[in-house]
Amino acid sequence: MKESAPNTYRFRLGRAAYIRTSLMALLLLSSFLLSGLVAVLLGLRLFSTYAHTFTFYLKWQDVLLALCCYITFISLGGCVFIIRFLHALHTGYRKEMIVVSDSALIVRDLSHENLSSIFWYISTALTCFLTALVGLIPEVLLAWTVHLPSPELAVLASGVTLVLGLAGLALTVPFLSFIVVGIVGSISFCRKMGSPQTYHLTTNATLSIDRFVLTIIYPDAPESMINLNILELDDQRDLLNLLRERWDGTQRLWNPRLGEEIELALMEAQRSAVLI
Q1: Residue 187: which residues within 8 A CB-CB, separation 6 or more?
Q2: Residues 110, 166: one domain?
Q3: Which of 87, 99, 104, 189 is deepest in the core (most CB within 10 A)?
Q4: Do 161 and 251 belong to one domain?
Q5: β-pairing, 98-100 with 8-11?
Q6: Does residue 241 sit in the same domain as residue 272?
């Protein structure tokens, strides 16, 4: 804990949590970089293996090439997310993760669960694209049906494939729209990754501690859940005592049971200190 101004206290991310989360982030970053590199190499190799002439059907090579390009794109997006989180992680370790003043509480969510959110965001984006490609399979099959030896069979098979293609578009179009929405939403997702959230310590604030996780709820503000285990042991106790002091100052209006929750958290912090 560091007092940067009168009645303003800053708590930094613990060293052990910083190192552990940084290593996990770097591992995930390496995975995204490797995936993007492999996709680029496969795409370049595939690009030179077929003629790029216009056809009335969709070539399977074009589908695979589009998939390689998309994997490269989302892999780079995942790298940007992780670099943004690493920057926030470094700021929380060098400067502050939690700031407590007389009137406000500023927190950064620097839990390793942010990495899980990044992974599932990218996985969902890939799943949506694969689902959109499934809807285009009939257009790919046209390349086979139009070359059937029997003209009657070719016309019949192509007609059935076209009908299936229309049904496939009902699957492709919505999932492509999901991808567009996801790309637009990724800007906000990246911007909020580990960014500081400010909560005014008024009667509108609701604070609770359950399983050593501090939950902060405030009207018209996103909910924050801060795992106190990522703080140093001394900072855990100092923060809990400081929150109890601020809670008493507001006549215990944040949460009538917060005092009991803080006592339980202090006991857990004490047990952790004894085990170490």
Answers
A1: none
A2: yes
A3: 99
A4: no
A5: antiparallel
A6: yes
